Structure formats: C-alpha cells, structure tokens
Amino acid sequence: MQQPLEQAVAETILQRFESFYSRFLEITQGSKSRFEHGDWLGVQLAGRERIRLYDHHVGATTALIKQMMGEQLPSQTLLKQVKGAFSDLLPRCDNFEVAESFFNSVYRRIFRHRNIRDENLYIHPFRSRGDHPDLSALLRVYRTDLAHLPQTLSQLLGDYSFTLPFEDKQRDIIDIHRHLAESGPAILHEEPFAIELLKEVFYRNKGAYLVGLIRVKGEVHPFILPLLSTGQSIYVDTVIFEPELASIVFGFARAYFMVYAPVPALFVLFLRQIMPRKPDYEIYNAIGCQKHGKTELYRHYQQHLAQSWEQFVIAPGIKGMVMSVFTLPSYDVVFKVIKDEFTPPKDVSHEQVKAKYRLVKQHDRVGRMADTQEFTNFEFPLERISPELLAELKTVAPSALTLTADKLVIKHLYTERKMIPLNLYLDKADEQQTRLALEEYGNAIKQLAAANIFPGDMLFKNFGVTRHGRVVFYDYDEICYMTECNFRQIPPPRYPEDEWSAEPWYSVAPNDIFPEEFATFLLQKPQVRTIMMQVHKELFDASYWKMLQGNIKEGVFEDVYPYRRKKRFRFQRGG
Fold it and tell me: Is the pLDDT score of 428 beyond 90?
C-alpha cells in the first residue's frame, strides 16, 4: 500500500537530515587525529567542508522532494499535513531541535521563502526538553577541595585519552593548582567543590579544550583547560575560570568548535550555565550548528520584538558606501542591507559582496571577524520602522524592499552582533582606553593577516569594540586573501615636482598596496599617531607584510589564542 504523499515527504526529510548529521559527526570525529598530528591545514579544510555540508544536503533533499511532488503546486492543506507528519516523527529523533531547522530550510528552499507561517514550518519549537534535563551521561564529575586538587587533576587528565603523552603532567597540575589557589574564586579556599567536565573534547585551530565548570555551594564558575600540541606531546596552556574569558573562548568572532555532539541541545544547556549572558543562538553557532543558530536567532529576535516598543533606527556611525545598517536600540544585533548602488569609489558588484561574506563564513576568523547570518525575505512590522530609516532604505535600497499595509519585507540582509564602531569609541576614550583600543586594532589586523586575510579598508569605522574591549572587523566588501596582494614601497620621486603632482609618478596595478599610505588616513590625530608608531609601526612597512605573505606561502599557521599572552602558564613561568 502506497504511503500518503505527506508521510513520504516527511520521512524523506527526516532521513536526509539524519544522513546530513551523520556526516557532520563523521567530519567532527577526525578532530582528535588532526590535533595530535598537527594537521593544521586539515583543520581548516575540515571546517570549510562541515560548513558547506548543510546547504549541500538541503539542496539534494529539496530536489528529491520536488521530484516526489511533481508539477503540482502544494496546497495549504498539504503543507500543514507534511508538517504534521514530520512532527509525528520527531519523538524518534534525539536531535529534534536541529531537525526542525533542517525541515525549515527545505521548506524555504522549495517555496522560495513564501508562506512563512507557523502552521507550515517551525517558527516556534514543536518540542521542548525543559530547562533541567538529565545531563549526567555527558559529564565526568570530580569531587574535591583545594588541598586534594592535585590528586584530582591527575585523575582528571588521565581520563582523557590522547595518543600523545603529556609533556610534563606534574608541572601542568602544579600550574593549574597554583593559578586557582592564587587567582580563583575565594570560596574555593573555604568549601569542597565539584568539577563537572564534558566528556567530549572541543577542538579548534591548534587547540583542544576540556570544557566544564566548578560547582561550589550554589555558585557556578567556568573551568576550561586549553591543551596544545608540540607534535610529540601535549600540555595544558592555562586554566580559565572567569565568565568573561569563557564567553570570549566561545565568542562570535571565532571559528566554530569541532565537538562530537550527537544531541547539541544538551551541550547548549550545559554551556549556558557558564555563559549566562550569551544567547543560545551564539552557543549553537560556536559548536558548529550555525544553521540552527540562525533559527534560534530568529526566535530570539521575535521574542525581543514582542517585549519591546521602540522603533528600528539607522545604526550610529559613519554611513557605509556598500551597506545600509540599522538596529533596534535595545537589541544586541544590527541588520545590514546591500545598497542598490554603491558610493564611489567603491567598485564591486552585489554578487562580489555576497561572495566576500561567504568567504568570511568559511574562513578561520581568528577572533577578529564578526560572524554573520544571511536571511531572505525578512519581515519587520512597518509601525516599528522609524520614518528616517524607512526614507533611508527607500533611497539606497528600493529594489530590496516590499511594503504591505503593515509589513516591511527586505529581500536579502545580514545580521551581525552589535558593537561600538571604533571611530566613535576613540572619540570618547581617555588616553589609557585609546592606547588599549589601538593595541587591539593593530593586533586584529596582524592576526587577520597571519590567517591570510587582508581587510582592504582599514579605517577605524570598519572595526567595532565588543563589551569585552576586543576590537573586531565587520565590514567585508573589500577583503581579499593576503596572497592576492602585492605590497610595495612607494618609489622615490624622480624629480622634486613629482611630490606635488596630483597623480602618482609610478605605475599602480589593481592589486598593489602601499602600506606607507595607511598613515595618511589612520594617523591624522597626533595622539593616535604617537601610540600607533609606538606599538604597531610595522603595519606601515611593506617588508612586514611581505614577511607575513612568506609565512603563509610556507604553510606557517600562526598561534592565535582566545586569551591574552599573560594568561598562559609559559608566560607566567617566564618561558
């Protein structure tokens, strides 16, 4: 007996989802081997493959569903029946949260983002685990006190099986114990406590992270041990117990972790305890479930919208040449719309801009490029759009807009975490804040360059300051690979008159970059010039950029840590 069409479609979507997630976990499982063998190129390639996996499987599923449906245009009744049949299947799926997002993606792809209503797809979650599911199967729990912590740490490190031996386990244990005794929560000196660690190891770039928490008398503190490999052995680089540092480790400007998480929602529920300020969508993103993170972001946005009253406004800062940016003042996200025409001298196409954003999505962001989510036909209540913003959008991006009696629909936009534009931050910063921000700015550029990314437009307005004081790049329309650039020194003038000429006295190819010229637009203020020349003067020297290019071409992958150098045990030991 032939299955009803809605049942066949629902089962096909779930089967294809399970196939996708099985492959997702398979790629993730290779992380341990890549870490131990120092296969850093393999780390990058695996990250890109895993990001592309979702769209590939959604596309293949969409094609199959269209074939099953034939030429008929599905009725509203059939759409509801398909969702109902899929909902009936969800109890057999442990990873039902991400399965709902996969269903949504297939639906949107088939129907080109039309009829986005809860009866057709999962705008609101169908199932819930509640706030307190049993997480014990995910954890290793160690009960101890400060006096017995060394013995506990010895057992703890031994419980994680690596092929490589520890370089000096006893030294690492002494460092962890000392750091917690000297700088950790004061209550550890007074009370016994429990260390709860996720059994699965988190891998990213050159690091492996044991992630957990310390639970002591009603308090919860992060407990994260970053491990690094020498190629012959591994060692503990530091211990992280500060909530703000834990949040940075899982930050929105970093590559996604590889962690074997058959049920990622359970990992999110655990991690939420050590990062209570971080929304669930950012935690899902951080562990590689960025497509479900997009679903969670949309739900988070809808909830905030229902609980707020103010209007969307043009975002503070200098208006961009390529993007129009707006925000809800009380919401920690900005919305970016590509303009119909770009302000001169910008010379890129819409497709090139989209390609730049895809590049950033798939590249190692080294903690210096904000993650984005891409949306199609995003709806806003028209009454919540300020008159100034509506006028701006009608002027610069009319082709992206559809207006109804009560809605503004934007055909294509990006969302990004809200930050303070660096130029606005510097306008109000005191001398110490200015120095720290400029140090961060230069470090951001250097770390991006070491990761084979040249920002292109290095103006302060294209960088933001996070709530942790980190400087992050967020304007991607001019980025390119470092290996595509030709860094040059400006040739000496042939004649005295050359220096006064309106045109350069030397030839300039499209990929030529003259770092000396950066000073012209970056160092106009005396205080900024003084500080930058003290801490980052090499940025204005072509030979420095050529050296970085040489490292990239030789396959040298720079060490980039999600914590400051002074936090590292080797630095503290004077190593």
Answer: yes
Cβ proximity of 447 and 368 under 8 Å: yes
pLDDT for 79 equals 81
Name which residue leads in pLDDT, 144 or 520.
Answer: 144
Is residue 427 flagged as an active site residue? no
Kindly give, in sequence order, each residue whose CB lies less than 8 Å from that of residue 209, ignoring residues fewer than 6 positions away. 201, 202, 203, 224, 225, 226, 227, 249, 257
- Given pLDDT bands bounded at 50, 70 and 90, which one contains residue 505? low
pTM comes to 0.93
How many residues are present in the chain?
575
Category of 75 on φ-ψ map: left (φ > 0), alpha (ψ -120 to 50) or beta: beta
CA–CA distance, 367 with 385 (Å, rounded to integer):
33
What was the pLDDT predicted at 349? 87
Return the structure tokens found at 268: 């999110």
Read off φ and ψ for residue 361, nearest 5 degrees. -60, -40
Burial label, 137 (beta-carbon count in 10 A; 0-12, 13-18, 19+): exposed
Residue-level pLDDT at 575: 59
Task: For residues 20 and 26, give the distance between their C-alpha atoms in angstroms, rounded to a whole number.
Answer: 10
Distances from the Cα of 201 to the Cαs of 139, 213, 259, 261, in angstroms? 11, 14, 6, 10
What are the residue ranges spanned by the domains of the chain?
5-111, 136-304, 308-418, 422-566
Q: What are phi and psi of 269, to 5 degrees?
A: -60, -40
Average pLDDT over residues 504-522: 85
Active-site residue identified among 371, 477, 512, 541:
371
pLDDT in tens, 352-387: 999 999 989 888 888 899 999 999 999 999 999 999
Bridge-based pairing of strands 313-314 and 323-327 is antiparallel
Contact indicator for 335, 323 with CB cutoff of 8 Å:
no
Find the angle CA(209)-CA(210)-CA(215) to the nearest 5 degrees. 135
